[in-house]
C-alpha cells in the first residue's frame, strides 16, 4: 500500500512540474536556439596564448567575438570547422567574428592567414581598413602581414638602382610610407 501511495504522489508531482511556466506542453511549438558556433584552438608546441584575456592552450574553444593574442615565438591556428581556418603568427593581436557563412578578422598587430571554404565569405581588416575579402563561390585564402609588406626591388642595370651598386638592398615598405635604401658591398659589408 505504501508503494502505491508513493507512486501516486510521484505521478501528481510529475504532471504539475510539466505544466509549470516555461515547460513544454503537448501541441505547442518550441523555438529552438541554434547551437553556438565554435572554433578549436591549436597552439605551436601546446604553449599558452591569450584568448579574451585568459591564458589558453590547444583544445580551447573559440567563440565568435574572441580576442586572441600570440606572444613572440608562439603561433596558433583556429579551426572553424566547415567555414575554414585562421592561422595567427607569433606576436599578433586579432579579433575574430564568425557565423554560418562568414568569417571576419580584425588584425590589430602582426600577421595572419585566413582560409575559407566554398560558401563562406572571409574578410580581414586592419586599423587602416579592409585588407581583402574572399569569394564565397570558391575556397579562398587571404594572407596579411603589414610588417612584412616589403617588396624587394631588383638592381637595375650595371650601376644598380640609384647607382648603389648591383648588390644594393632596396625595399619599399607599407604602401610607400617608408623607403629604405641600404647599400651593401659584394662581401656583405655596409659602406
Please, could you describe this protein's structure?
The chain is mainly β. The chain has two domains: 38-147, no CATH class; 151-182, no CATH class. Helix content is 9%, strand content 40%. It has one helix spanning 2-18; strands at residues 38-43, 49-51, 54-56, 61-63, 66-70, 76-79, 84-88, 92-98, 102-109, 112-116, 121-126, 129-133, 140-144, 151-152, 169-173, 178-182. It has a seven-stranded mixed sheet, with no helix packed on it. β11 (121-126) and β12 (129-133) form a beta hairpin. The relative contact order is 0.09.
Tell me the radius of gyration.
28 Å
Query: How many DSSP-defined strands?
Result: 16
pLDDT < 50 stretches: 12-20, 150-191
What is the spatial order of strands in the main beta sheet? 3-2-5-8-9-11-12
Number of helices: 1
Number of domains: 2
Per the principal axes of the C-alpha atoms, what is the gross shape? globular
Describe the structure in brief.
With 191 residues, the chain is mainly β. It has one helix at 2-18; strands at residues 38-43, 49-51, 54-56, 61-63, 66-70, 76-79, 84-88, 92-98, 102-109, 112-116, 121-126, 129-133, 140-144, 151-152, 169-173, 178-182. Residues 12-20 and 150-191 have low confidence and may be disordered.
Pick out its properties.
191 residues, mainly beta, 7-stranded mixed sheet, 6-stranded antiparallel sheet
Amino acid at each position: 500500500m505504501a508503494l502505491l501511495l508513493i507512486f501516486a504522489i510521484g505521478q501528481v508531482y510529475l504532471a504539475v512540474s510539466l505544466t509549470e511556466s516555461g515547460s513544454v506542453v503537448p501541441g505547442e511549438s518550441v523555438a529552438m536556439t541554434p547551437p553556438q558556433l565554435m572554433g578549436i584552438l591549436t597552439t605551436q608546441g601546446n604553449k599558452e596564448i591569450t584568448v579574451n584575456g585568459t591564458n589558453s592552450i590547444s583544445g580551447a574553444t573559440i567563440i565568435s567575438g574572441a580576442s586572441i593574442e600570440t606572444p613572440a615565438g608562439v603561433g596558433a591556428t583556429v579551426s572553424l570547422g566547415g567555414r575554414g581556418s585562421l592561422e595567427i603568427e607569433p606576436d599578433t593581436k586579432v579579433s575574430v567574428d564568425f557565423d554560418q557563412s562568414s568569417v571576419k578578422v580584425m588584425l590589430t598587430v602582426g600577421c595572419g592567414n585566413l582560409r575559407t571554404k566554398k560558401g563562406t565569405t572571409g574578410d580581414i581588416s586592419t586599423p587602416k581598413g579592409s585588407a581583402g575579402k574572399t569569394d564565397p563561390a570558391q575556397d579562398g585564402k587571404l594572407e596579411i602581414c603589414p610588417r612584412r609588406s616589403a617588396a624587394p626591388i631588383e638592381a637595375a642595370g650595371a650601376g644598380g638602382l640609384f647607382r648603389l651598386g648591383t648588390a644594393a638592398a632596396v625595399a619599399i615598405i607599407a604602401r610607400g610610407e617608408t623607403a629604405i635604401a641600404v647599400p651593401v658591398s659584394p662581401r656583405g659589408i655596409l659602406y
